[in-house]
Amino acid sequence: MDNICVVIIIVVGVTEESSLLEGWHDVWLFRFLVNMLGYSTIIIPGYLLISYFKRTNYLETGSGICYPVIRTCVFGNEAKTGLLDDVSAAPRNEGDSGSSVRQAIKLIFCAAGLQASYLTWGVLQERVMTRSYGATTPEDQGEKFKDSQFLVFMNRILALTVSGLWCILFKQPRHGAPMYKYSFASLSNILSSWCQYEALKYISFPTQVLAKASKVIPVMLMGKIVSRKSYEYWEYFTAVLISVGVSMFLLSSTTSKHPSTVTTFSGIVILVGYIVFDSFTSNWQDNLFKYKMSSVQMMFGVNLFSCLFTVGSLLEQGAFFDSLAFMTRHSEFAFHAVLLSVCSACGQLFIFYTINQFGAAVFTIIMTLRQAIAILLSCFLYGHAVTIVGGFGVAVVFLALFLRVYARSRMKSGRRSAQPIAQKV
């Protein structure tokens, strides 16, 4: 009965807001279901084929020209250890390796690359999803691009190309995971990216950034309920600070005349979907890393299935050629879409390089700063109104995030310093 009430509330909220839009194709829930239907036309046949090959023990009985492909896609190398051969994961370079000047230059390079890639990506994301193209006069409303799935495809096809070239040019660990296992993370990654783009039609960009920053709260709740995890006192304290800061920002937001600054019920629902799908993606990828693959191999496998799913769904809906036609009508959109994809692909490479060189703590600090700058940049460029209380709420959120990074780094350094003592006893 509770589930039925939830569905009714969602449908009512969507129906009320869809009155501002034209036709079923402009209702986000309808587009989501149509996209899922398109993915199912690829997932269901794939599931049946994989089940058939496993049931018939094809790994032992199969032969022929297709055998290596089927073996790689369905079975892989099931051993989850010893897959590195003579290639091992490159150790992270510590601060004492090389001169301090050289390390400082590397850090500036990483920080500048991450900031440039993701700040540009954020600005373009909001521009593409909330503004129109082709308006020649102030009275002319122009034409808005509506298909978030095509933008996801554009991002993934370029990321696939970049990661593929990287795997060819630089030696990688021997691949052992069955290829089909990437499809789970790929599907959730597509859906989280779709929700991220789609949400900008119903909420402001600063609200979306704060929602991403507060992902730690549902992650901790799920860890406590599902995995029975225990957390330190500072983790609870910072989670409370984040929730207070986000609440202050949302409750103090003023309604502006521009629709991109309004937080609606649909926007909140889509944001919840983003957090759920994104959390699944990271957890499934952690599980796949048991096969000792590199991050670039993970990037290639996930993006390979993402391209397959999105292009199949777009072609089935007829939206692929409609989006290409939009690109031909509006060269500015074509430039924005390509640049958006370039920033996304380069940003992923900067992530891998930064973590490899300086570790996760430095990377988290850089990305937290990026989120704060992104909010300020969005307010400046697109005129989002933020009250004094809302600004204080944003400050509380980022203070909590920095406290989490500081506490975690102190805890890890304490463990490392205590380790030699434990070995001597």
UniProtKB/TrEMBL annotation:
GO terms for cellular component: endoplasmic reticulum membrane; Golgi membrane. It is a multi-pass membrane protein. The keyword Glycoprotein does not apply. InterPro entries: EmrE-like, SCL35B1-4/HUT1. The chain crosses the membrane at residues 28-50, 104-124, 150-170, 233-252, 258-277, 298-321, 333-353, 360-383, 389-407. The keyword Transport applies. It is found in: Membrane. GO terms for molecular function: 3'-phosphoadenosine 5'-phosphosulfate transmembrane transporter activity. It comes from the Eukaryota. Keywords: Membrane, Transmembrane, Transmembrane helix, Transport. Belongs to the nucleotide-sugar transporter family. SLC35B subfamily. This is Adenosine 3'-phospho 5'-phosphosulfate transporter 1.
